[in-house]
């Protein structure tokens, strides 16, 4: 009888599927435990060995919790909308729906290439997912609920008094009775006050426009990251080094009318909620920084009239109102709406040129670039609130339109960036001398501290410190009606529109340019067919190409676009929702995935509540994790979500890095020289496929020559032993680097249990670590050694013999270690303990059922297939998956005896095992009577006998 992993794993995967072994119940007397992975985007490239790392860890934990008697929900699905599928559709002419389905279920692409399919790859690794709960965000039965949540957001406003979202009808009721003067809401800036009489007299269209200024999702003209190459708006986290993460296309800043979400309404709650969840401090800090709470004052500077007749005010948020008498210039973001209005004719050309240049840099790039100093004087001046002095107004790209008010009151003596800007433009028209308001030297650098100074040359603030001056200046600003104390957040409202095809359609049609929600009973509004996935010739999003994309408000259905009459048939929204829409509530959909009427029933939501353990990459710290918390809090406000926070505990798995291989081509030739011969040569390193290289770093030359047409006639300079040795380097695993190792290959050769154990063995879960296939064979060898405890070539060799003390010690040491490790997510040290245990039991010749049966359960979370097989061979029926985890008994680790080293004058001569409960006198008596002692003393009497019970015995003299 031999261990055949392919046969064993296929058998048990089939058993699990047929018996729905891992199905979770929404109505169980067992305690619940919800274990979730960040679900994958299904690309055509499929899984590489880095992808399953977090899934294996969560699976080990989920299986362990089942052994502990929990009703475990461990689902899986696909984040299947997104830009990659759309770009692939543009390049190949295939429907994103078709390519996405093939990527998930397997099949063949347009070129006839076989696609393994995510589902089959995941199944081969033996995950305990409840596949009956699978979701795909691109399925209409899923995004129906995404559309429904959007409608709820549209029909809600944020009441600061109750500190939660409320139905828009409650706001309308206030308007009808009191107007808006007393409304304390998160809303647009500069809303005009109106009375109840005025509100009731407004036309319906005017009322709708006003309500849009309060709704939690709203239309507004905003600065966005526009990518002409992709024809869409990009989120900040989709831009790397100023270009699109996908494709490397240029990105510019552009104003567009977009749907936005008032995530800013939840800024304080998002901050406070971080105190109640078990996440790493680094992720929490990332979110705190992104939210960016700051306490200070809003200050209004009046623009001094020049040729512009209108009066303008520049509002500035500052965390240092105490430094107001040190203001020597102001800086506006180039995109600030006042720039065009206040710039003088003399400066217009320079300002416009600067704005055009700045539009090509992303906000992230501008924030990161602290060395480059650039700006232009607008020619305009503002008036200091207290001194009434003229302050020149500049524009500079270090100020961002979306942060604060997009304007800075520059105090060079107290801020390094203002200091550098002032010195760079020193002596130019529009740049005044730096004014020092601190009793400190600023000849070399600004003084930015909030303590250890007194203010000087600051009028009524002279002699005050930071706290005193801040309080006083706010009081004086309020008297002038030119400022007030304020808490500000860096967090901006989230742009929720994408000029893409492959995304959730908005349930929105337009009447006279104003958005109307489609009644929820008519959802889903299904993505229409289009001929082209590119924007239209006149620049509309791809849905502008749809032939059937208009809303019949009488028959409540989507009809042909040509029928639009703006009377009963109206145009539908052409943008689609962003990728984060579907992933912002999916954990709740898993709770009740087949519910057609609700995203989840109240009963299911009450039972599962929230995710107990969430595992995924830290790249989602300020994207998905922030948006999902926002939606969860909103749904809690509206009485749907049962908890304030969606994810109790979060673990970020590290990245598995690839071990790339390089060949070395002599410059200007088609000759490749072995790594050991390249010294002194002018060579070009080129990535080669790691599958052409063996464990000794030797290249299979024939495979390499057949890799590409231009390599067919390549020549090779080999080592003296006739081999071509490649270079090695650890890099990110990527198809472009040809260093991808697929789990399928490992599973076929060594089995999924080997892959699972090896990935856990590589190192701590949260650290990055390089993949080295050479280590796989050792883990495979361990599994074969494990099997030899249970059976040999002739069959089962397990006996009913009583276990020895050492057998029990080895087992219970392992039970304790593995249980502790799983609870602490230290999976790598568990694998080490398994190896130690099997080595010990093998050396002990243990084949006792009372040891090997619980051992199979202990190893089951890590190597479930072989555990199931061993459990079955031992004569047990059913799956091992829910068998209780063995109970650790401390008594088996308590030592009853000690092997003492016996020394003579400090030199150890022999050992003796004695009970630990012996007294010093009894130990001495036994030692003195021992034949080996008598022989060593040779008739002498020792001067001293030193005995430390449990440690040493030493005879001196």
TrEMBL record:
GO terms for biological process: leucyl-tRNA aminoacylation. One of its GO terms (molecular function) is ATP binding. A motif ('KMSKS' region) lies at residues 732-736. It catalyses: tRNA(Leu) + L-leucine + ATP = L-leucyl-tRNA(Leu) + AMP + diphosphate. GO terms for cellular component: cytosol. Its EC number is 6.1.1.4. Keywords: Aminoacyl-tRNA synthetase, ATP-binding, Cytoplasm, Ligase, Nucleotide-binding, Protein biosynthesis. Pfam families: Anticodon_1, tRNA-synt_1, tRNA-synt_1_2. Residues 808-922 form the Methionyl/Valyl/Leucyl/Isoleucyl-tRNA synthetase anticodon-binding domain. Signal peptide: none annotated. Residues 288-478 form the Leucyl-tRNA synthetase editing domain. The keyword Hydrolase does not apply. Residues 11-155, 727-758 form the Aminoacyl-tRNA synthetase class Ia domain. PANTHER family: LEUCINE--TRNA LIGASE, MITOCHONDRIAL, LEUCYL-TRNA SYNTHETASE. Belongs to the class-I aminoacyl-tRNA synthetase family. This is Leucine--tRNA ligase.
């Amino acid at each position: 009888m031999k261990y055949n992993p392919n046969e064993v794993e296929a058998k048990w995967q089939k058993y699990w599927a047929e018996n729905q072994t891992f199905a979770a119940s929404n109505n169980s007397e067992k305690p619940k435990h919800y274990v979730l992975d960040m679900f994958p985007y299904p690309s055509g490239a499929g899984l590489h060995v880095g992808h399953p790392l977090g899934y294996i860890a969560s699976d080990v934990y989920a299986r362990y919790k089942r052994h502990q008697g929990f009703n475990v929900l461990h689902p899986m699905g696909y984040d299947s909308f997104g830009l990659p599928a759309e770009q692939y559709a543009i390049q190949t002419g295939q429907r994103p729906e078709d390519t996405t389905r093939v990527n998930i279920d397997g099949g063949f692409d347009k070129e006839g290439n076989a696609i393994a399919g995510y589902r089959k790859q995941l199944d081969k690794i033996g995950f305990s997912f409840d596949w009956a709960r699978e979701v795909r965000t691109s399925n209409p039965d899923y995004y129906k609920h995404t559309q429904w949540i959007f409608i709820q957001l549209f029909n809600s406003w944020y009441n600061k008094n109750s500190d939660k979202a409320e139905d828009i009808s409650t706001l309308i009721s206030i308007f009808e009775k009191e107007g808006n003067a007393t409304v304390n809401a998160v809303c647009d800036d500069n809303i005009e006050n109106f009375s109840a009489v005025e509100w009731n007299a407004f036309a319906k269209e005017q009322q709708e426009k006003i309500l849009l200024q309060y709704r939690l999702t709203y239309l507004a003209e905003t600065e966005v990251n526009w990518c002409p190459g992709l024809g869409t708006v990009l989120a900040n986290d989709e831009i790397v080094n100023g270009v699109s993460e996908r494709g490397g296309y240029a990105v510019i800043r552009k104003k567009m009318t977009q749907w936005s979400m008032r995530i800013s309404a939840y800024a304080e709650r998002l901050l406070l909620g971080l105190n109640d969840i078990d996440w790493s401090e680094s992720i929490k800090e990332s979110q705190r920084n992104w939210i960016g709470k700051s306490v200070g004052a809003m200050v209004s500077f009046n623009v001094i009239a020049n040729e512009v007749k209108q009066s303008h005010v520049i509002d500035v948020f500052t965390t240092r109102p105490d430094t107001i008498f040190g203001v020597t210039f102001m800086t506006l973001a180039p995109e600030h709406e006042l720039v065009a209005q206040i710039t003088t004719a003399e400066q217009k050309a320079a300002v416009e040129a600067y704005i055009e240049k700045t539009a090509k840099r992303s906000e992230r790039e501008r924030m990161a670039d602290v060395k480059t100093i650039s700006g232009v004087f607008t020619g305009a001046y503002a008036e200091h609130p207290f001194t009434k002095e003229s302050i020149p107004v500049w524009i500079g790209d270090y100020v961002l339109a979306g942060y604060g008010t997009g304007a800075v009151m520059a105090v060079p003596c107290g801020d390094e960036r203002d200091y550098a800007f002032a010195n760079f433009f020193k002596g130019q028209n529009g740049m005044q001398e730096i004014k020092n308001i601190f009793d400190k030297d600023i000849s070399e650098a600004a003084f930015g501290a909030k303590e250890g100074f007194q203010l000087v040359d600051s009028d009524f603030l002279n002699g005050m410190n930071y706290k005193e001056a801040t309080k006083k200046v706010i009081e004086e600003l309020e008297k002038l009606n030119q400022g007030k104390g304020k808490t500000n957040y860096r967090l901006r409202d989230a742009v929720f529109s994408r000029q893409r095809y492959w995304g959730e359609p908005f349930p929105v049609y337009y009447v006279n340019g104003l958005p109307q929600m489609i009644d929820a009973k008519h959802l889903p509004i299904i993505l229409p067919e289009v001929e082209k996935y590119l924007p239209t010739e006149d620049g509309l999003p791809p849905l502008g190409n749809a032939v059937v994309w208009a809303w019949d408000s009488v028959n409540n259905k989507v009809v042909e676009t040509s029928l639009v009459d703006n009377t009963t048939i109206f145009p539908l929204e052409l943008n689609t929702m962003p990728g984060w829409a579907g992933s912002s509530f999916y954990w709740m959909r898993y709770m009740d995935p087949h519910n057609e009427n609700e995203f989840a029933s109240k009963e299911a939501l009450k039972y599962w509540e929230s995710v107990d353990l969430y595992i995924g990459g830290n790249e989602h710290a300020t994207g998905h994790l922030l948006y999902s918390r926002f939606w969860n809090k909103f749904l809690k406000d509206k009485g749907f979500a049962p908890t304030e926070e969606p994810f109790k505990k979060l673990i970020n798995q590290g990245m598995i890095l690839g071990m790339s291989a390089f060949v070395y081509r002599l410059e200007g030739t088609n000759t490749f020289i072995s790594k050991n011969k390249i010294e002194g040569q002018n060579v070009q390193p080129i990535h080669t496929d790691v599958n052409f290289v063996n464990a000794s770093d030797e290249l299979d030359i024939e495979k390499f020559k057949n890799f590409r047409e231009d390599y067919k006639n390549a020549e090779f300079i080999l080592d003296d032993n006739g081999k071509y040795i490649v270079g090695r380097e650890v890099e990110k695993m990527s198809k472009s680097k040809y260093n991808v190792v697929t789990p399928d290959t490992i599973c076929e050769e060594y089995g999924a249990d080997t892959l699972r154990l090896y990935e856990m063995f590589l190192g701590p879960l949260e650290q990055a670590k390089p993949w080295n296939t050479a280590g796989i064979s050792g883990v495979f060898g361990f599994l074969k050694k494990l099997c030899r405890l249970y059976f040999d070539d002739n069959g089962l060799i397990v006996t009913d013999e009583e276990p020895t003390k050492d057998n029990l010690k080895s087992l219970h040491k392992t039970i304790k270690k593995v249980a502790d490790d799983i609870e602490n997510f230290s999976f790598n040290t568990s694998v080490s303990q398994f190896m130690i245990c099997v080595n010990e039991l093998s050396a002990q010749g243990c084949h006792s059922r009372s040891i090997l049966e619980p051992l199979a359960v202990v190893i089951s979370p890590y190597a479930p297939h072989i555990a199931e097989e061993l459990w079955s061979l031992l004569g047990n029926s059913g799956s091992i998956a829910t068998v209780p985890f063995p109970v650790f008994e401390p008594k088996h680790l308590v030592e009853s005896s000690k092997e003492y080293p016996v020394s003579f004058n400090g030199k150890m001569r022999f050992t003796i095992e004695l009970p630990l409960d012996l007294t010093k006198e009894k130990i001495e008596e036994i030692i003195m009577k021992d034949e080996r002692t008598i022989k060593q003393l040779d008739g002498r009497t020792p001067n001293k006998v030193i005995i430390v019970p449990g440690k040493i015995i030493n005879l001196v003299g």
